[in-house]
Amino acid sequence: MSLFDRFQNRTIIHATLEMGTALSVGSRLSLEPTGTDMPVVKGPDGLPFIPGSSIKGVVRFQAERVLRTWNQRPHLWACDPFDSPCVSSARKDQLWEKAGRKDDAFAQAVWGGSCTACRLFGSPWFAGRVAFKDAYLTNAEDLPVLIQIRDGVGIDRDLGAARTGVKYDFETVVPGTCFSIEILTENLEDWEVGFLLTVLRRWEEGGIAIGGKTTRGPGWGKLKDITIRWVDNQNLMAYLLERKLSEQPADRCLNAFRDWLQSKEASDA
Ligand SMILES: [Zn+2]
């Protein structure tokens, strides 16, 4: 049995994202003949939502930024997944041979060489342990309109300049919308959940933008009411039989992260 097979714990982090500005999470292609050039993504009920992949994108990006600032290799760091991945394809082949072509030893070796971001969010060689659900609108009935159409000007990708005459329109979700954010983690240690919470804290402060066109305004909001629920071997039965989850205080995870950092700094010194 490898370290990936065994259930240890699961946490469910829930929060509300309240948008201070408009939001532009495009679906790129309108299926309606009279649609705009860039509609926002909508569910079967016609309401806009934020795809989990978009949420994962901004959270991973922010986590990588923090990790690159700390840069305490090998225990707290982020690779550049495109230019310089922690475990390249060639390196993976080397590790396979070195592990005597044994799955378990190989998995351990790849894990050992992987950066913190890949261990949490996934790499080409293993799935991430943090999953992001699609975020649905929770206050549609409070808003008179949900979607506005804006004019855009085409950007010349080569010159990075606005090209006159190339106009298009795009949809945005109006400011003031609230979305229900759910993040699931599997088999994370307390300190890793703590690290994730420090990343989300930046979103609580309004320092993270999501969606397209964020440099021109849309996409800024704040996370509110973060709760953490938890299931591990101790309350697994209650969870399976009654869907009961224990509430996990954020402080416990943040303290675990701080203690873990201190223990690593002490062992480095
Ligand atoms: Zn990596």
Provide structural commentary.
The chain has one domain (9-78, 115-268). The chain is an alpha+beta fold and 269 residues long. The protein is globular. Strand 3 and strand 4 (126-127) form a beta hairpin. It is built from seven helices and eleven strands. The strands form three sheets. Strands 1, 2, 5, 6, 9, 10 and 11 form a seven-stranded antiparallel sheet that branches. A two-stranded antiparallel sheet has the order 3-4. Strands 7-8 form a two-stranded antiparallel sheet. The protein has helices spanning 52-70, 89-98, 103-113, 116-121, 190-204, 236-242, 250-268, and strands spanning 9-19, 49-50, 122-123, 126-127, 130-132, 135-137, 147-156, 161-173, 178-186, 221-232, 246-247. Zinc ion binds next to helix 4.
Task: Walk me through the topology.
Blueprint: E1 9-19, E2 49-50, H1 52-70, H2 89-98, H3 103-113, H4 116-121, E3 122-123, E4 126-127, E5 130-132, E6 135-137, E7 147-156, E8 161-173, E9 178-186, H5 190-204, E10 221-232, H6 236-242, E11 246-247, H7 250-268
Antiparallel strand pairs: 1-9, 1-10, 2-6, 3-4, 5-9, 6-9, 7-8, 10-11
The structure holds zinc ion.
Zinc ion is lined by residues 79, 81, 85-86, 114-115, 117-118, 123.
Please supply descriptive tags for the structure shown above.
269 residues; alpha+beta; seven-stranded antiparallel sheet
Largest sheet geometry: 7 strands, antiparallel
Supply the number of helical segments. Answer: 7
Gyration radius over CA: 21 Å
Q: Oligomeric state of the chains?
A: single chain
H/E series? EEHHHHEEEEEEEHEHEH
Task: Indicate the overall shape.
Answer: globular
Number of strands: 11
Number of domains: 1
Range of helix content: 25-40%
Sheet-strand content, in percent, reads 25-35%
| Cofactors, ions, other ligands | zinc ion
Distance between the termini: 35 Å
Q: What is the averaged pLDDT score?
A: 87
Specify the structural class.
Answer: alpha+beta
Low-confidence stretches: none
